[in-house]
Amino acid sequence: MAFNGSGTFVRLYDWTDDAANGIPITASRVDGEDDGFATGLTTCITKDGQTTPTANIGLGGFKITNLAAATATTDAARFGNVALVASERQTASASATLDFVLDTTNFNVHIFVLSNILPVTDGQPIYVRVSTDGGATWKSGATDYEYHTQIRKSNALTYSALASQGETFIRATNSNGNGAGEGANGTVTIISPTAASFQHIHGEINYFSSDATALLEGCACTGAYNGAAEDVNGIQFLFASGNIASGTIDYYGIRAAS
Q1: How far apart, in whole angstroms, are the C-alpha atoms of residue 187 and residue 111?
Q2: The pLDDT of residue 169 is above 90
Q3: Which stretch of 14-23, 106-115, 118-127 has the lowest confidence by average pLDDT?
Q4: Which of 29, 31, 122, 125 has the fewest CB atoms within 10 Å of its CB?
Q5: CA distances (Å), 202 to each of 77, 132, 164, in order?
């Protein structure tokens, strides 16, 4: 019988019981027991690579450690081989803000993917702020940020823009609608936030506006935290007024090339 299907090895006989019950040792019983041992050992994975698994192997929540670097597309990748890593997802539900602490140990580039972000209050732009103390506080000084946000509308061939050299936020969008299907979709990226320099933040976000005709708008935002040349380790998303009704923001990190 060998293994019972749940990983437990099951013997055919118990020699102590046989002796107590007067059952003699026979070649057929010994062969049966030894055949079970042989089947069990053959089922096991050998450490020198002689055997190949024939089914998926569950690790019970444990890790494979000390894995060699992958060199082929069919190799398992260790954490250090993976360039783009999904780090965290936050889902809004009448949320005042969505806040993220940056994993600056593992990632050099931090990308935030906005999916169907809707304001509770119609016509509100998305603001971005940063933290230098792991999200304990958020920078909001009168001149902490500067930005230039280009606005593209589906009913125009010309562009408009919003800009400031001294603000309490980075304005990433113009006027977001809060109707069904009007949510904001796009990305916000911050690169090398621990470079102890004035941090640049880039955004590309599309949405339907709060206009009566619900125009498609796209905003390309270039912003910077210029309160001080210091490490940034947190980023916050909010609307100018009112809560974030719904939507998700996914945080992805990219490792620096080694």
Answers
A1: 7
A2: yes
A3: 14-23
A4: 31
A5: 30, 18, 15
The 3-state DSSP class for residue 38 equals helix
CA distances from 255 to 41, 82, 181, 192, 252 (A): 42, 8, 34, 10, 10
83-254: what fold? Jelly Rolls (2.60.120)
Write out the residue limits of the CATH 2.60.120 domain(s) in the chain. Answer: 83-254
Q: Which amino acid is at 79?
A: F
User: CB under 8 Å to 50, separation ≥6 — which residues?
Assistant: none
DSSP 3-state assignment of 77?
coil
* 254 DSSP β-pair partners: 84, 109
Confirm whether pTM is higher than 0.85: no
Identify the burial level of 194 via C-beta atoms within 10 angstroms of its C-beta, where 0-12 means exposed, 13-18 middle and 19 or more buried. Answer: middle
Choose among 43, 195, 208: nearest CA to 119.
Answer: 208
What was the pLDDT predicted at 121? Answer: 96
For 55-99, the pLDDT digits (tens) are: 898 888 998 889 888 888 788 888 777 778 889 999 999 999 999
Whole-angstrom distance, CA of residue 227 vs CA of residue 239: 21
For the residues of 190-244, what is the DSSP string, one character each?
EE-TTSSSPEEEEEEEEEEBSSTT--EEEEEEEEEE-S-S----EEEEEESSS-E
Q: What is the reported pLDDT for 18?
A: 86
Q: What is the C-alpha to C-alpha distance for residues 103 and 81, in angstroms, rounded to an integer?
A: 17
Q: Give phi and psi for 53, each to the nearest 5.
A: -60, 150
